[in-house]
Amino acid sequence: GTVGDIEGLPFLEAIRQMRNDVGRDNVYYIHLTLLPYIKAAQELKTKPTQHSVKELRSIGIQPDAILCRSDEPVSESICEKIASFCDVPSNSVIPLVTVDNVYEVPMVLEEAGLGDIILDSLDMDSEYRDMTEWSAMVQRMNEPKESIPIALVGKYVEYPDSYLSVREALRHAGLDHTKDIELHWVHSEDIERYGADALLANACGIVVPGGFGPRGVEGMIETVRYAREHQVPYLGLCLGLQVMVIEWARNVLGIKDANSSELAPETENPVVHIMPDQEDVSSKGGTMRLGDYPCHPQESSRTKAAYNGDIIMERHRHRFELNNSYRESLENSGLLIGGLSPDGNLVETGEVKDHPFMVGTQYHPEFKSRPNRPHPLFSQFVGAAKETIREGVQRPLPLDLTN
User: Fold this and answer.
1) Where are the domains of the chain?
2) Dist CA 165 CA 178 (whole Å)
3) Span 145-386: which CATH code?
4) Phi (first) and psi of residue 42, to 5 degrees
5) Which class is 6-136 in CATH?
6) What does the angle CA 131 – CA 134 – CA 135 come to, to the nearest 5 degrees?
7) pLDDT per residue over 366-397, tens digit each?
8) Which terminal CB of the chain, N or C, has fewer other CB atoms within 10 Å?
């Protein structure tokens, strides 16, 4: 957002108070602002930045540095103008021109001297400001590599930023295997219309991310069936685990009306149901199982192999879970439980036996992936996908789905 948005006011007030609470010498304010380029005049405009700083001052915040986002080069005279009108040292007005790879930004800021400026202001020393590893990582990212086609089947693919963390986690895992990720955005409702065979024939891996509500869920369930029957590596996140359980119950156990009580409250076979501590909650606001919770990986599971630890911490955002009444039937038929809460009551991960890679997580591993530390589950998934050969991996002729 921008300064002045009503949604941002509580945060601005919080950082204003922070400087008083911890001392003025212990807080450094950085204002990221946009310099719009007016094509007709062929110039960058600084007026929005000046007004933004004026608005910040009115609530008691004086920026210590200003980062100027721009699609065009920013001249020294523009930086000096902003410094003069915004009362910021000229060396603390730093151009941030659009780069091809967002992970280049830390290197751009370091080269501009922002690290030294911040450390001097806070009277701090740093012995570990070595960007060599990061620079090498960015260089590897920018090098041409063989790509792996991965299909992301979601409910909100028309807004790709809805799955930004998933996209970046796949990218991190691809880098770990020296591969580019060729991400295909597939709407789950299109799977319902045209079928998984028409839309997933080229995918060497399939990801089903989180979501809420019944819209498009049948398409996700069909996607799971396709991945299971065609031995395509599959990673389900949150709702992606739940539809994996529903598909297994319907097509392997033969429970044709199996569903989630969130999606079909009247179902007689809720293989996914609301958590027991949520049953009496009538007001849903702020009541989800939210944040970091521990998970105990089970022995001989993919989850255990990925993490190589006895207890892991992962971030959650859900109120529905696998129904324990069906757990024994699911496990006996080949849907294994890979991770549980420490008390053994909540299923955290599910895995399909005798499959190259089919894992669903109730948590969101994408939130903990980093470019230099890819999440182990994503890395295992991409590792399985790169070994998958599909007959349709060569590009088919464009398919007209309107007929």
Assistant:
1) 6-136, 145-386
2) 20
3) 3.40.50.880
4) 55, 50
5) alpha beta
6) 80
7) 999 999 999 999 999 999 999 997 765 544 44
8) C
